[in-house]
Each structure stands twice: as C-alpha cells, then as structure tokens.
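Hi all, posting the design record for the shared folder.

TITLE: backbone redesign
STEP: 1 of 1
STRUCTURE INPUT:
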C-alpha cells in the first residue's frame, strides 16, 4: 500500500517541484550537475520510471539533509559527491531496465 502512495505522490508533482529545494548555486567548483530526466524513456510510465523518480527524490532529500548538517568544506563536498553518484547510478539502473524491456534512450549524432 505504501508503494502506491509514493507513486501517486510522484505523478502529482510537476517536474520542477522536486528540484526546487536543491541549492545548485552552492555546488562546489569542479562538480558538474548530472542530468536528471524530466520524462521517461519513450514516454513509457512504468515501475522503472517511478523507481527512478523515487531514487532521485531520495538522493535530493539526503543531499539537503547532509548539507544542513555539514560542518566544513569537506562535509559539503562529500554530500555533493554522494548525491552525484546516486543520481548517476539511478539513471544507469533505469536505462538498464528499460533496455531489457526493449526501449532505448534517444541519441543524436551530428557530423560525419
């Protein structure tokens, strides 16, 4: 039952609502913000998409908490590093599961 509550909450949020609390302006130099998908691969809303969104929301929640409790520069860098790793891992897991189902991420190649 709890799983359905999370799914319902995720579908009710606009794409920008989850990212509003993340202080990207405080990201340390040298960190690149990983891409966070705003729409599912091939517009297929399935359990893998909702798992991905839940993973992203959890990573963002942990980041905000870690930054709030950080006491020095190293703590802040560790928090951003952990968040970056979690976002990238969530995307890799999502893409892997969608590939198993026969869906591919779009790729554009320009040039020769």
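Okay, here is what came back for every position:
SEQUENCE:
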């Amino acid at each position: 039952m709890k799983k359905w509550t999370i799914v319902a909450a995720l579908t009710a949020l606009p794409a920008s609502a989850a990212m509003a609390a993340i202080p990207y302006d405080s990201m340390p130099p040298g960190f690149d913000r990983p891409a966070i998908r705003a729409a599912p691969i091939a517009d297929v809303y399935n359990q893998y998409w909702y798992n991905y969104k839940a993973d992203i929301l959890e990573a963002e929640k942990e980041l905000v908490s870690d930054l709030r409790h950080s006491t020095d520069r190293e703590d802040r860098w560790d928090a951003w590093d952990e968040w970056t790793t979690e976002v990238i891992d969530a995307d890799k897991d999502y893409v892997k599961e969608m590939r198993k189902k026969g869906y591919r991420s779009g790729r554009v190649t320009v040039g020769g």
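COMMENT: The radius of gyration is 16 Å.
Let me know if anyone wants the other runs.
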